[in-house]
Design a protein that fits this description.
The chain is mainly β and about 425 residues long. It has helices at about 15-30, 35-40, 165; strands at about 55, 75, 80-85, 90-95, 100, 145-150, 155-160, 180, 190-195, 200-205, 210-215, 230-235, 240-245, 250-255, 260-265, 285-290, 295-300, 305, 315-320, 330-335, 340-345, 350-355, 360-365, 380-385, 390-395, 400-405.
């Protein structure tokens, strides 16, 4: 899907199997067609549905080991974030493990079970802001393997079991919302956002906690002391950084390289029906372009807002079409690649959307469903140096790896994220 100028539970389609079978028969009847297409020779007749220019890697990641506890009857939890340090160091932030219903296959993604609702890290009967909820499930998640590192084959090669205790504090903790590294940090500190406990953690690469922004379990908006469900973080080359705060804070907070609070900007809309510049409803993710512009995903208003590093408003545009009406779009995450494009994960349309830095929609791909390769909530998006794409799905409860199809158009692939730290 392309466009010019500015543009503003999971469905299974049995017919897909028939189509796949016909495609297979067609290639069998025409030997060499697929090979020539993969090599970039002749025409490119492949459609981009459902996985765009990628093929999903099956059975990735591999089951977690039972060396600390058994996983019998348990599966992956809601995935908050994923960050590819390298092709063999993929950091995953998971909101605790979830129990499987009786008879379910081991490691079935929660979204593929017969249980009602999405994968969640919330406590049973407790909402996102610690209020009592009538939506009781009758089971609890457990905080195990919240922070793990996978290799390219999907095997766990590292974990931080001591981090589980951080996320399980207080009744409304649900686990990590996002995990990131500054592309400029030569020591490769690991930053983890915990939105429902209102804190931002900074760890050494080895896992020592060295800084906490916010006050555990306390909501508010007070410089670096109080946050209200923070969501994401982004850096300038000199180490200055910005925290999107978030669901309740409705602001962007700026810090110097020594972690001192400098300023913030943003507020709730004066007129909720006509939100203006610098007014937010769920500041859900933040990214910085190569020229230093700060792109803020204003999720509740389904739009992108752009600022300079001092919070001066520069631009904004809708991320949905005005012709759709109220389609309940939920933009979950975005990143900016080194080639200067924005990719946005959109939950209700189950697609990844590509924009240029001026807000022109260029391309999108994705499809709903729980089959391998389908998307529900693209809450975390990252790429490795080999061009592989990783998507953390908060609704389906899984992280997926996508490999580029040989010969696919590079302009339709998610480009590289910036990295200027050493890779071992």
């Amino acid at each position: 899907m392309g466009g010019q100028g500015r543009s503003e539970k999971l469905m299974v389609i049995p017919l897909l199997l028939m189509v796949a079978g016909l495609a297979s028969c067609d290639q069998a009847a025409n030997p060499g067609v697929g090979e020539a297409q993969a090599a970039g020779e002749g025409r490119w007749s492949y459609q981009d549905w459902p996985t765009g220019p990628y093929q999903v890697v099956l059975d990735w990641p591999r089951p977690l080991p039972d060396d600390r506890h058994s996983h019998d009857g348990w599966t992956w939890g809601s995935m908050g974030g994923v960050y590819a340090e390298s092709p063999d160091r993929i950091w995953v932030a998971m909101r605790g493990e979830l129990p499987l219903p009786e008879g379910a296959e081991p490691w079935t993604a929660y979204g593929a079970t017969n249980l009602v609702g999405n994968a969640t890290g919330n406590g049973d009967g407790i909402g996102a802001t610690c209020q009592v909820s009538q939506n009781r499930r009758g089971w609890e998640r457990r905080f195990e393997h919240s922070i793990i590192v996978l290799d390219g084959d999907g095997n766990m090669v590292d974990e931080w079991p001591y981090a589980d205790e951080l996320f399980s504090q207080l009744p409304c903790g649900r686990g990590p919302h996002q995990i990131k590294m500054s592309p400029y940090d030569q020591e490769k500190h690991v930053w983890i956002i915990d939105d429902q406990l209102h804190v931002i953690y900074k760890f050494t690469y080895e896992g020592e906690l060295v800084l906490t922004h916010g006050t555990l379990g306390e909501r508010g908006r007070d410089a670096g002391r109080l946050f209200d469900r923070p969501t994401d973080i982004a850096w300038l080359p000199d180490g200055t950084y910005f925290i999107s705060d978030g669901y309740g804070g409705k602001r962007v907070a700026k810090f110097d390289p020594d972690d001192n609070f400098l300023m913030d900007w943003g507020q709730a809309p004066a007129d909720p029906q006509n939100p203006g510049p610098n007014e937010f409803q769920t500041v859900h993710s933040i990214a910085i372009s190569p020229d230093g512009r700060i792109y803020v995903l204003d999720r509740g208003h389904s739009r992108m807002q752009v600022f300079d590093e001092n919070g001066t408003f520069l631009d904004m545009w809708p991320l949905t079409s005005p012709h759709w009406g109220n389609q309940g779009t939920l933009m979950a995450n975005h990143l900016i690649t080194t080639d200067g494009y924005i990719w946005v994960g959109d939950a209700p349309t189950n697609r990844l959307l590509k924009f240029d830095l001026e807000g022109n929609h260029l391309y999108s791909w994705g499809a709903p469903g729980i089959q391998a390769g389908r998307l529900a909530c693209s809450h975390g998006i990252t790429t490795d140096q080999d061009g592989n794409l990783f998507v953390a799905d908060c609704f389906a409860g899984r992280v997926q790896k996508f490999e580029p199809i040989p010969g696919a158009d590079p302009s339709r692939m998610v480009g590289q994220i910036l990295r200027q730290y050493p890779i071992e």
